[in-house]
């Protein structure tokens, strides 16, 4: 991967890790876990998606456990939640914005890394991007004993999928430029925020006449 | 792997993926998830077992995210559940038959792939077959917030284990023929259906006198 | 890895596997699972941490599915729980001691294996040790539908982290001797037991004035 993409990827990873650490920490605080519980859940939410990405594309050990910058960002997010959570909760709407930022950062960073790894087919790169984006949240919710947001929330997986497709197409066409990565992340971010704002939901199944 | 085994494996994988997608979709419909929730749960149930198999034997990226035929089968199963679920629910007994078919297909496909992969010991191949067969269902149930069927249902893991052992022994003896794969799948299928029909259960622990 | 470390690692693995199999089996017995449910949960708890370790450092297939000695120890622990659980429950305090032993054994075995594997950075080795130690318990609790102990219990992750750091530092300094492995395990064991005995907990978040 050219140097500038590598640095963009690290920046995207750092943003995603920190933001998801905040989300994991907040869930833990709400469940009244202790300091270590908060840190564990923050780190699991922050690093889980990237670890799944790296295991799926054969990059072991995953950067999520070997890069001290990502680990520090995760721990920092957890600590911030623990000590500042009244403030963070008050800015609950801001957190939803941050969460959309994390989704956007990880969708782009995941699909970029997969698409530029030898032997990963384009379709696999798209799915790896999606898994990177939603994986940390799934782990967070499973550990905390709640149904994963990706299964119940307004359009959540779709923006991530969209961003992954854009990045992989750009890589495959050989036209990817730095600014396009940030534009793709911005696209995911915007679509997700519009979905939240408008409370857009996918259709639910028709009620079956057989279940009364 | 000889070509004919490869095609048999793909056929078995496709059957297993489609059937488990139906099962995942049905669980999601019952939980009133929206369209994307249904698709996510269907794909997770359909592809999860095969992804775990490939990660365990070092085949990355797993075919579950790189083969468009498997992905299409999973998505198709999810969509079918979403749009046709009243019909599918009415044929609930048929679904249990299909589920047994998925278990059978994945037990054989998982153990076959592992046993024919360089560096995988026979005992590991048996366990990989078992994990492939039950893994998707475990992921489905964890995501949906219910205790995995493999832990509470009438003989579920045992038929899969049996089929895996048969396939691995045949591979090790060098006597495997195409028809034997289908016979092994048929064996798992039959044992599982008999267990369902007769409501066969493994014994439960004796009630302890110390807990009243 | 020198032969003597390999044998120490196997011994530590066997201890950890057997003890966590007992813990998984006891949880399954309490949930009234049948024989196969007990065996499945015992094996998942016993082998899960080691499988995660090996996948993270690229050792596939993981020894947790390829080494019959570990598999036998896991199955034996599950069977023991199933048939002897009244006795095991009566010695509940002894089980907590055993569990601390498992945590200690896996923290040392996990960090040792990772630190002596080519291409694993020290910081990654520490985290792999931690994940090995707590991973099986997390899988056990997720499958059984309860919040993982690592998130809610008195100092649980900290002793494991401490042991991992000690082992990795010793490996990096090139001064590791056999007896130090056992001393590190003893340290984890002791710290964990003291935490249990004194009911030491990490601080919990301040109650937020915004939530009444």
Q: How would you describe the overall organization of this protein?
A:
The structure is a homotrimer of 212-residue chains. The first copy, chain A, is an all-alpha fold. Chain A has one domain. Chain A has 9 helices and no strands. Chain A has helices spanning 3-30, 35-56, 63-66, 68-90, 92-115, 122-143, 149-152, 157-173, 178-198. Chain A is globular, with a radius of gyration of 17 Å. The interface between A and C is medium-sized, with 31 and 36 residues.
The N- to C-terminal Cα distance of chain A equals 57 Å
> Into which percent range does the helicity of residues of chain A fall?
over 70%
Number of domains of chain A: 1
Number of helices of chain A: 9
What is the alpha-carbon Rg of chain A in Å? 17 Å
Arithmetic mean pLDDT of chain A:
88
**Alpha-beta classification of chain A:** mainly alpha
Low-confidence residue ranges of chain A:
none
Q: Beta-strand percentage of chain A?
A: under 5%
Pfam families (chains A, B, C): Gly_transporter
InterPro entries (chains A, B, C): Gly_transporter (IPR005115)
Protein name (chains A, B, C): Putative membrane protein YeiH
Keywords (chains A, B, C): Cell membrane, Membrane, Transmembrane, Transmembrane helix
